[in-house]
């Protein structure tokens, strides 16, 4: 009997799983950029020496790593790997600085970190490359650092005269949600590098095109002044994805994008609680089994909080009482109570509002509730950076009412939808 390779066996198993999958209404799974590239014989990479920016989410529909796919692709010479936050193989925790100098154990290729002392590839690391390929699954939220890494690589590609190739992937939230304020210049950081809404409703390929075409890639010259650069950008689009599709409808397997986004549910809930989580005053499920999926604290009347929130009739949302003792993190070993967030209709839920409505409900129940007064100065600064607009904290903390910041929260959303629609690669629906 002929032997069968591990890679071939993996393909067979994954293909059978796809055939049996009932998670999607589509008869065929979406093809991501790497799948399309592979189906076209890697023609866009033929004869090129390339570097690859990726992490464990860079896989084809059979869960083969993009690293291995490109390393074994005929006519393609993969010579270097670049890792964002969490690393190429995903073995670093959130915020951990990663140093370079290692080699990938599977291919022997050098790995250069883009999340350590240096967050941009150097000229030496790019020497001899014809193109840089980017293949990372994003979650559609501005504070998630992968898009900052993508923009940084685009800047260097522009200044070094190297082609930038983005292998597109679905926005897990779909392509219709746009929520939150833009980014004030004084708050620009690695968790908010571009003046785009907090939830921006684009795929990474669409976002890359917008950054490139709208003059949002800026580098400092020797005179200390910013100048705009534009790279030679190629996007390999998906097949079968439409803007109304959240990730659950794509037919694709979810690979954890980071240690605290192990599931699609966590990706959906990241914008719902992540801003509040920066204060460190309430648990958002980090350290428990529901990362970003709950909001709880010590001494909170969980049934009363759930009842108050459900009475608000927030579209597409339900809340239930929850009691927990986190295993690690800031609330390790402490009994907390509050609510678990359930999304009953993903298309209707306004995700980023949730954390503010929960704070509004807690403030109504407990008049002494003052998370901004109890948070550290470092936490307050990070809250502002992630939010993108200092007015949010200033106005919300006066009465703890979302209505006081609604205009700030959505003031730029419609304008952004109009501007970004020029760069849509996919229709609203089939």
Description:
- By secondary structure, the chain is α/β, with parallel strands linked by helices.
- It is built from 14 helices and twelve strands.
- It has helices at residues 6-20, 33-39, 66-71, 123-126, 146-160, 204-213, 264-277, 302-311, 354-365, 371-374, 377-387, 390-399, 406-410, 413-420; strands at 49-54, 77-83, 102-103, 110-113, 131-135, 163-167, 218-220, 226-228, 233-236, 294-297, 317-324, 336-343.
- The strands form three sheets. The protein has a seven-stranded mixed beta sheet with strand order 3-4-2-1-5-6-9. A three-stranded antiparallel beta sheet has the order 10-12-11, covered by helices on one side. It has a two-stranded antiparallel sheet with strand order 7-8.
- Helix 5 crosses helix 6.
